[in-house]
Amino acid sequence: MDPRKAPAILLLGSGGLPVARRIQALYPQARVLGLAGRVEGADATYAEFGETLRGLYRDDRPIIALCAAGILIRSLAAQLAGKGAEPPVLAVAEDGSAVVPLLGGLGGVNRMAREIAAQLEVAPAITTSGELRFGTCLLEPPAGYALADIEQGKRFVSDLLGGESVRVEGEAPWLEAANLPLADQARRVIHVTAEQRVDARDELLIHPRVVAARIDGDADAAGVRQALATAGLASGALACLLAAPARMTDAALASCADELGVPLRFVVDETALPPLHQHLSGIRLYRAAQPLEVERIGRRRGRLTVVGLGPGAAEFMVPATRRALDEAEDLLGYETYIRMAGPFRPEQVLHCTDNREELQRARHAFELAASGRRVVVVSSGDPGVFAMAAAVLEALDDNRDPRWLQVELQVFPGVSAALATAAKAGAPLGHDFCLISLSDNLKPWEVIEQRLDHAGAADLAMAFYNPISRARPWQLARALEIVARHRRPETVVVLGRDIGRPAEALTLTSLGELRPEQVDMRTLVIIGSSLTRRIPRPDGQDWVYTPRWYR
Ligand code: SAH
């Protein structure tokens, strides 16, 4: 299964956990999500069922919910009117006694229902007439084959349901076990062919992906389609694009492959290719007898993604990061953060390292990515805030190895500790502010003192990262002294400890009262500006905000 489509298994109560784990055994990349406060022992928690469900649905994720079908229908109702993603959605009884495919007929929901039902040893509640009658979804050919036209396919299936018989031309091994109304003289034909054919109402056209197109000149999708057409081949028969390794960073080539919806592979050695079919200007078409195993042809461009997990809670992680984590083959980072980002599939390689070996970790990440792997480097919060993104770029800057330069490098933002803490407290960073790391591991302490002095004079609100540690015991007290030159003792101070994690604690105090003992390395310290204020909120604690004005 496409790892981007890892199912989410949703639980409303702990009772369903054993069944959820049995389903997860079928889809090891799936995550079990439990309602916070109600479910113990899930892989992650969520706060609100409807919102979470709609988010997953929008994100095109298969959903397996252990709850009443009605709850799912009601929660998704508003979403269904719009066009857009329609991932598989299944309701499974908490005790595993019923498996009900609800939505996502073309996304393979019935196949999932059959798999899950077999695992739970019950009968799936399949209601799709075509599937019931023929024992297979004709519109969902296996990997290596592409359906030419889904709308035409739907008409074709309804003709068969209406009593038409059918014959098969070409090789369709997966249909052998199906229960089709076959007849040698049938007007309706399932054609399995790489050749281009004119769409006809009485045909179901399926293309085996047997063609690889090597691009030597300029890349554009229209040109590739044209070349296929000239060779008499259907665009659906295209399995991949090929190019020389020197073109790994060619953006036009990558977007051409995207537009055609096929992978791009880089080949040095022509011997592994299928036979040459036709050579047109700048494009060589290779054609195999069977669907191509693209993963075996040449290699792909490696990818290095630097992500930030946010402060901790899964809801505060950006979806692109979740996807990158799911797609990763290698993950590098401080062990605590890697564990926070899991669970992972057994084949995903975790390279857990000590927090201080950042440059070495970055180099290792480049080496892996340069060999064609999908690599993710994990930070907490935002990767660009006192974290791995700068180390990764520094490694690249130091060592402009041509192989490293060919890696597809991306940095995804995350919710940094200062922003997560500020949001908990209200809006202490609601006006101009600065972020300062009090760690003098990589910068001289004098620089830090100078910055604190200037930030104090500029009346900026400040967020302190790395405020204190066993190796740096005195620095925080000294920093507070410097700030106190510019701020009154009543200046509002916010301490956020383990924000977004189970042990989360938010403390409001003042510059005069703050003691370094209240702070540790898991704390983010916000010092207000001269205007930062507290206002009461109903639960007894105060809101903190810095007004947008000076008056
Ligand atoms: N890249 C991270 C910061 C790494 S520096 C980010 O953007 O958040 C590590 C420091 O960040 C810690 O010493 C602490 O001051 C702060 N920090 C990180 N996560 C935190 C959390 N969940 N709660 C409070 N502070 C946190």
UniProtKB/TrEMBL annotation:
Q: Record keywords: Methyltransferase included?
A: yes
Instruction: Enumerate the transmembrane spans.
Output: none
Q: Which Pfam families match?
A: CbiG_N, TP_methylase
Which keywords, in A-to-Z order, does the entry hold?
A: Cobalamin biosynthesis, Methyltransferase, S-adenosyl-L-methionine, Transferase
Q: Which CDD domains is this protein grouped with?
A: Precorrin_3B_C17_MT
Gene Ontology biological process: cobalamin biosynthetic process; methylation
Residues making up the signal peptide according to the UniProt record = none
Q: Which residues form the Tetrapyrrole methylase domain?
A: 303-514
Output the InterPro entries linked to this UniProt entry: 4pyrrol_Mease, 4pyrrol_Methylase_sf, 4pyrrole_Mease_sub1, 4pyrrole_Mease_sub2, CbiG_N, Cbl_synth_CobJ/CibH_dom, GbiG_N_sf, Precorrin_MeTrfase
**Which PANTHER family does the entry link to?**
COBALT-FACTOR III C(17)-METHYLTRANSFERASE-RELATED
The protein depicted here goes by the name Precorrin-3 methylase CobJ
The organism is: Pseudomonas tohonis
Encoding gene (name): cobJ
